[in-house]
Amino acid sequence: MDSPVPSTDTLVAPASPAAGAGRPPRLEVRNLDAFFGKVHAVRNVSMAMPDRRVTAIIGPSGSGKSTFLRTLNRMHETVPTARVEGRVLLDGHDLYAPGVDPVSVRRHVGMVFQRPTAFPTKSIRDNVAAGLGVLRAAGEKVNTDERVEHALRRAALWDEVKDRLDESAVGISGGQQQRLCIARALAMDPAVLLMDEPTASLDPISTEKVENLIHDLRVQVVVVIVTHNMEQAARVSE
Known about the structure:
Layout (H helix, E strand, L loop, with lengths): L16 H6 L2 E12 L2 E12 L3 E5 L6 H7 L10 E9 L2 E2 L7 H7 E4 L11 H5 L3 H6 L6 H11 L3 H4 L12 H13 L5 E5 L7 H14 L4 E6 L2 H7 L2
Parallel strand pairs: 3-8, 6-7, 7-8
Antiparallel strand pairs: 1-2, 1-4, 4-5
Helix pairs in contact: 6-8, 8-9
């Protein structure tokens, strides 16, 4: 039988150096099916995504890539009539087990979308800090300025915006906005980062910067990227 459902604080165990060296699966899917009403969008997928590696999912439009990605952090179920069957395991814990809070899941499994989703009415700083209220609600002490700077540095954006933190996020370029969205996800210190065609709307220079960022992030988190570009999949994934 499965072990009891863990609390929010114990949902994810820290990755050990040995785990990183051996590349065991930290995120695993078993017999997963996803539905939109009667439409069977994802059929019987089982796969493992090793710790500290980039896993790329490729395929034509409409093949279910994005739907599959959204099942990994329970965003799929936010769509009316959508449902999931099967198991998604993070560090051995079933993210769909009874009693597991979907908001807690999304804290540990962050997501970046195809188009930058910067909040236009918020400053650059407040965009990065947008999710930190979830940590405070869970009883964590959070130093916002430290979190923001650390996340922007991890997203390779700090040097470009450190003197503009109080300005609107829409005043920076599209490529910078996408890295800002990555920083917002990283501010939550996730174990997994999901990326749904993150460079599809970017120019070649911005695409290269995001791909370089993915290469750097792979030693810190599990990265799962959806792309329709085979060359990109070969460049960024193992």
